[in-house]
């Protein structure tokens, strides 16, 4: 894993994957239009021709995906300020299998918006999504220290509500686009505590075709240990280290079964069709009680994996050919 980002802030970027998704795909997302999730879906090229279906939560969208009511769902999975999005990670780690088929990076910029004519002094309460609130706490603390937080289903639903009439909050924290969409006045812009904040969204589908290998791919897995023992995590990580596989995210999440029981949610560089990744997954399958494969998909930043010496596909094939020779008596 990289200790510190060394690449510039990504622009809103999209990747297209060769999957079973078609122009008639029904795409679910946290609505209404104007959410950061809707922007992620805008940036997902193939969605332009599909049907857009709004939901009130990530869980509701994933439930609809599992039931077949929609074909794909765009959900936030990681934030450069707050880390992993627990609701999404947990919903993917259990229940009927789902797989990630692509990712989108969205720079998140927040404004404080209110019904026309509202002054900043009149703001006693602020409505927004919990992720947004977590990212503007510093600004609110300095500029509206007495403001009360009112949770809403999304940033855009707070903006939409203010357009409709009086609410238990006078201002919304939302994207500039949502303020425009609902005719709100912008009382302050760029109020995020980290100006360079980026949220990573993933497009999730039911298991089917694996997106093709591009050389700049990521694979997501959740690992469940057989038992708790000294060096248990190290044994898992060795499977990656021994094959030159870099991780881009590693988080422990409670399995919710008992106190102290955790699983590990991991993003790694590479595709399940890469020999080194396939071999690592086999190693993990042997030592874990469960390896939940959550998909291989093209990276949004298109950064190609660095292949460590002697970990290329050819190195693994040559070693396998050698073993086959030994086993068949034709070394
Ligand atoms: O409420 C939204 O707009 C969302 O899409 C959820 C969210 C909120 C803040 C940052 C990233 C995603």
TrEMBL record:
<feature type="domain" description="Prephenate dehydratase">
    <location>
        <begin position="26"/>
        <end position="206"/>
    </location>
</feature>
<keyword id="KW-0028">Amino-acid biosynthesis</keyword>
<dbReference type="InterPro" id="IPR045865">
    <property type="entry name" value="ACT-like_dom_sf"/>
</dbReference>
<keyword id="KW-0057">Aromatic amino acid biosynthesis</keyword>
<feature type="domain" description="ACT">
    <location>
        <begin position="221"/>
        <end position="298"/>
    </location>
</feature>
<dbReference type="Pfam" id="PF01842">
    <property type="entry name" value="ACT"/>
</dbReference>
<comment type="pathway">
    <text>Amino-acid biosynthesis; L-phenylalanine biosynthesis; phenylpyruvate from prephenate: step 1/1.</text>
</comment>
<dbReference type="InterPro" id="IPR002912">
    <property type="entry name" value="ACT_dom"/>
</dbReference>
<dbReference type="InterPro" id="IPR018528">
    <property type="entry name" value="Preph_deHydtase_CS"/>
</dbReference>
<dbReference type="Pfam" id="PF00800">
    <property type="entry name" value="PDT"/>
</dbReference>
<dbReference type="InterPro" id="IPR001086">
    <property type="entry name" value="Preph_deHydtase"/>
</dbReference>
<keyword id="KW-0584">Phenylalanine biosynthesis</keyword>
<keyword id="KW-0456">Lyase</keyword>
<protein>
    <recommendedName>
        <fullName>Prephenate dehydratase</fullName>
        <ecNumber>4.2.1.51</ecNumber>
    </recommendedName>
</protein>
<dbReference type="InterPro" id="IPR008242">
    <property type="entry name" value="Chor_mutase/pphenate_deHydtase"/>
</dbReference>
């Amino acid at each position: 894993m990289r200790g510190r980002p060394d690449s510039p802030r990504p622009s809103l970027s999209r990747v297209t994957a060769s999957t079973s998704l078609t122009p008639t795909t029904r795409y679910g997302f946290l609505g209404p239009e104007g959410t950061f999730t809707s922007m992620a879906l805008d940036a997902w090229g193939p969605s332009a021709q599909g049907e857009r279906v709004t939901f009130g939560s990530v869980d509701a969208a994933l439930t609809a995906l599992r039931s077949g009511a929609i074909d794909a769902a765009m959900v936030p999975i990681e934030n450069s300020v707050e880390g992993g999005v627990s609701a999404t990670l947990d919903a993917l780690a259990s229940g009927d299998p789902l797989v990630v088929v692509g990712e989108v990076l969205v720079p998140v910029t927040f404004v404080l918006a209110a019904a026309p004519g509202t002054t900043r002094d009149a703001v006693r309460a602020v409505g927004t999504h919990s992720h947004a609130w977590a990212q503007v706490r510093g600004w609110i603390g300095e500029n509206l220290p007495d403001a009360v937080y009112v949770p809403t289903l999304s940033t855009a639903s707070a903006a939409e509500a203010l357009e409709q009439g009086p609410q238990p909050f006078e201002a919304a924290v939302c994207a500039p686009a949502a303020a425009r969409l609902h005719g709100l006045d912008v009382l302050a812009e760029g109020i995020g505590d980290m100006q360079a904040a980026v949220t990573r969204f993933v497009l999730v589908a039911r298991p089917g075709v694996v997106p093709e290998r591009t050389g700049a791919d990521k694979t997501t897995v959740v690992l469940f240990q057989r038992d708790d023992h000294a060096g248990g995590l190290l044994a898992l990580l060795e499977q990656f280290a021994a094959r030159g596989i870099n991780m881009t995210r590693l988080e422990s999440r409670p399995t919710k079964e008992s106190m102290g029981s955790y699983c590990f949610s991991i993003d790694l560089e590479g595709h399940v069709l890469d020999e080194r990744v396939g071999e690592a997954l086999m190693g993990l399958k042997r030592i874990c009680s469960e390896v939940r494969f959550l998909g291989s998909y093209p990276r949004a930043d298109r950064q190609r994996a660095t292949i460590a010496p002697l970990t290329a596909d050819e190195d693994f094939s040559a070693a396998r050919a050698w073993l086959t020779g030994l086993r068949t008596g034709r070394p």
